[in-house]
Design a protein that fits this description.
With 385 residues, the chain is of the alpha+beta class. It comes from Kocuria aegyptia.
């Protein structure tokens, strides 16, 4: 499938009846799997077009299209952010490109988000018509995650999307660890570190929830210090809520993850349909850290499978850097055993839809070679059509 900006504009015109493109510009995305553009039509509306670069990426886009169509007005009213609206699709051989409504704003990189959370810009709130001080970015992110995790599991399972129990989540991570070990390119100290966490059963006692599944800074549409929308709904499933926290650990300022978790916990304590019906488990960030670190190993596995020696070398270097970093931190103490009757044991309510542990790997970690990282995007298209 051609992925020039002009071709993507033509895809938008073919996918949405009556759409007449007048300008087109790039849109940030995972460059390893997709090409995207923002199209301006003659009526002044903007549309986002995403074209896959592989059959696997096409399947992910089809899943996102299905998810967006399942977000009914009632579901959208539960969310403190906007979600794109599915508008159309265009087949090109075995691949499908999709057109969604565009949410005005731009993603920011993780450290820019951390700075915004630590030092809000007063100009962003000067015209907010409210006597209450606006929530900080960390509070917004905490409430955002709580709202996603409070969505009903039926939204996912009725759409025949995956649902995992806590033990299945652990088994999937064990499979990822095994594949990484088979490459014989991962430092032994990291393999042992990950194995300790995976063998600590107390870490894996949590209640599965609806999770975005691939959340990263590229998926947050920011405007004037506020999160206006969330995109990238290709991996929605029921599983470990820690998955949606992993990307926060890439920030140089550790206060970002801590502040978001604090706001998330506060939201969980509210009796509201926008909050989960229970507090976060005490090991949520432990699993999020494991997920973030294993993402590098997954990137190595993908590079090895593709025979991309330059990317293999880059992944090995990142893992070596991670090994040096964790060597400077004290190893976490093992958790105390939890009795069988403990109320901390999770409610395993999604076993009806188990999925194999060897599901296609998720995209490479943010910042890894060959992937996109969030950056300040243009508000609208730049190139006339």
């Amino acid at each position: 499938m051609s992925t020039s900006l002009e071709h993507l504009a033509a895809v938008a015109a073919a996918g949405v009846p009556g759409l007449a493109p007048v300008a087109v510009g790039p849109s940030p995305d995972d460059d390893a799997d997709f090409r995207s553009a923002v199209v301006l039509d003659a009526s002044g509306r903007r549309w986002r077009v995403r074209a896959p670069l592989s059959p696997e990426a096409s399947v992910r886009l089809e899943t996102e299209h299905l998810v967006l169509r399942s977000f009914t007005p009632a579901v959208r009213s539960r969310l403190p952010f906007l979600v794109p609206t599915a508008a159309g699709s265009v087949a090109h051989g075995d691949l499908h490109a999709f057109v969604h409504s565009h949410i005005e704003g731009a993603p920011l990189d993780i450290d820019a988000l951390a700075r915004m959370a630590a030092e809000p810009d007063p100009e962003h709130h000067r015209h907010v018509p409210s006597a209450e001080p606006p929530p900080t970015l960390a509070v917004q992110l905490g409430r955002l995650l709580a709202a996603i995790h409070a969505l009903p599991t039926a939204l996912v399972l009725d759409a025949d999307l995956p649902g995992y129990t806590a033990e299945q989540c652990r088994q999937r991570r064990l499979a990822e660890l095994s594949r990484a070990a088979d490459t014989r390119r991962v430092p032994t100290a990291l393999l042992r570190r990950w194995e300790r966490v995976l063998e600590d059963r107390a870490v894996w006692r949590f209640r599965p929830r609806v999770v975005h599944g691939d959340l990263q800074e590229d998926d947050l549409v920011i405007s004037r210090g506020r999160v206006r929308g969330v995109t990238g709904w290709t991996d929605l499933h029921v599983g470990d809520p820690a998955e949606d926290f992993a990307w926060l650990l890439a920030a140089r300022d550790a206060r970002l993850a801590e502040g978001v978790l604090e706001a998330y916990a506060a939201a969980c304590r509210r009796t509201s349909f926008q909050a989960p019906d229970g507090a976060p488990d005490p090991h949520l960030l432990d699993r999020a850290r494991l997920d973030a670190e294993l993402a590098l190993a997954q990137w190595l596995v993908r590079a090895v499978d593709r025979g991309a020696q330059d990317l293999v070398a880059d992944a090995e270097q990142m893992l070596a850097t991670l090994e040096q970093d964790v060597a400077r931190r004290p190893a976490p103490a093992p958790s105390a055993p939890v009795p069988e009757s403990s109320p901390e044991r999770p409610v395993q309510d999604v076993a009806e839809h188990p999925q194999p542990a060897d599901d296609p790997a998720r995209p490479a970690p943010a910042g890894a070679p060959g992937t996109s990282t969030a950056h300040t995007a243009q508000e609208g298209p730049q190139r006339p059509v």
